[in-house]
Each structure stands twice: as structure tokens, then as C-alpha cells.
Request: fold
Amino acid sequence: VFGLSGETRRWLSSKQETLLCERGFTQKEYIIAAKQELAKGQAVFNDLHQTEL
Reply:
């Protein structure tokens, strides 16, 4: 698991609530979707981080 900042955690938890409310995922579907969102978020974070260096 990545070391997440408080801001990232808040974003993820709000994102998770949105996914659950909007789509009525099953637990398994939800976990897959959450992992995909996390991977996308991490990729964006990595890109931003690399451009700063």
C-alpha cells in the first residue's frame, strides 16, 4: 500500500462513497473499481512528482 497523504485519503474515501452511492456495486466489484481508481490516482501522482524533479 502506498504512503498516502491525508488529502489523498480524503479524496479516496469520498471517491469510494460516490462509487457506492452511484452504482450500487457488489463488494467484489467495488474492490476492483477502488483499486483501479487508486492505480489511476497513483499514476497521476507519480507523473506530477516526476515533473517537479
Observations:
- The helical segments are 6-23, 27-52.
- The radius of gyration is 13 Å.
- The chain has a mean pLDDT of 72.
